[in-house]
Design a protein that fits this description.
The protein is of the alpha/beta class. The chain contains 9 helices and 15 strands. The strands form 3 sheets. A 9-stranded mixed β-sheet has the order 6-4-1-10-11-12-13-14-15, sandwiched between helices. Strands 3-2-8-9 form a 4-stranded mixed β-sheet. Strands 5-7 form a two-stranded parallel ribbon. The longest helix has 16 residues.
């Protein structure tokens, strides 16, 4: 069983309106860790999610979305606080351009008291990521959970920097350092790494020195780099596709890696040892490329990935 924790929001995709001063909006459920939970569920895994979920019009749709996609929301805490909104436009290269509304919202207000006292023994993997790991009080709550469970369970982490939410890069650096001490697997994009003032090699070296077993750095259309505690260093090429947008591509990569690793029956100790890292990353690159052909975070099923022939 997989437990994903943190961001749950509505992605509001913007487009030109018939009104020259207006904006047309198309809303979809999103949030990086929730996207990962979605990807894991669609790949046939028991996927569970933890955060605060609003009872407002958006939160009710998030709850219905989880139910419809077989994401177990039983650990979630209901609140009357508003749902986080992400306004998304497209840059000239079709990459996402974000504006977030997070002040006092549900997923940014998780407290230590909200944490489940004990976890189901079936939970093998816990995933954390993005702005929920730096916005207080949620950041402290999630860091507490990661530290509490990281010795016995496999912790996954994606910093997924959103500097438009938290512009202080030193806060991000501190959280990355703290979370990598609990994590077995870390995935970051090359953009994340650059914002942290690192290179892929130095970022991976720091994470591995903190006790991480496996590090992936995604390179967009150029594929991904893989580094392991065993000394593996390899690069998997990208796949050329017609890009609709890149929303959810990194989350798809993360979910695909976690699915692949879980399918190997690997555990927290020595997770990467003996595994075919090139096969894992190739599978994840293929899955992420497929998501890029779709608008929004429409993560693929396992059958979609296996039949995808770009």
């Amino acid at each position: 069983m997989y437990l994903c924790c943190g961001d749950s929001l509505f992605d509001m995709f913007t487009a030109p309106s018939s009104d020259p001063h207006g904006i047309s909006i198309d809303g979809h459920v999103g949030g990086s860790p929730l996207n990962v939970a979605l990807g894991l569920a669609r790949m046939g895994n028991h996927s569970r999610f933890f955060t605060r979920v609003s009872t407002d019009m958006f939160g009710r749709r998030i709850a219905a979305f989880m139910a419809a996609n077989d994401i177990d929301s039983s650990p979630c805490v209901e609140t009357r606080q508003n749902t986080t909104l992400a306004m998304i436009g497209l840059k000239e290269d079709n990459s996402a351009d974000y504006v977030f509304y997070t002040d006092g919202t549900a997923d940014c207000s998780v407290t230590v008291d909200d944490l489940p006292g004990t976890l189901d023994p079936a939970v093998r993997v816990i995933h954390f990521g993005s702005y929920s790991t730096v916005i207080e009080p949620t950041a402290t709550a999630l860091a507490t959970l990661a530290a509490r469970e990281g010795t016995d369970r496999f912790v996954s982490y994606d910093p997924n920097l959103r500097t438009m939410i938290e512009p202080d890069i030193e806060i991000w650096r501190a959280r990355v350092a703290a979370m990598t001490k609990a994590a077995a697997f870390v995935k970051a994009s090359d953009e994340d790494v650059a914002q942290l003032g690192a290179t892929p090699d130095s970022f991976a070296a720091d994470a591995l020195a903190n006790g991480v077993d496996l590090v992936c750095v995604t390179l967009g259309m150029d594929g991904a780099l893989v580094f392991s505690a065993e000394g593996t260093e390899l690069r998997v090429p990208g796949i050329s596709v017609q890009v609709a947008d890149t929303v959810g591509a990194g989350d798809t990569f993360q979910a695909a890696c976690l699915h692949w690793l879980g399918a190997q029956g690997l555990t927290r100790k020595g997770l990467a040892r003996g595994a075919d890292m090139a096969a894992m990353a190739g599978f994840a690159v293929k899955a992420a490329a497929l998501t890029c052909t779709r608008r929004g975070a429409d993560l693929p099923t396992l059958a979609d990935i296996e039949s995808f022939a770009p």
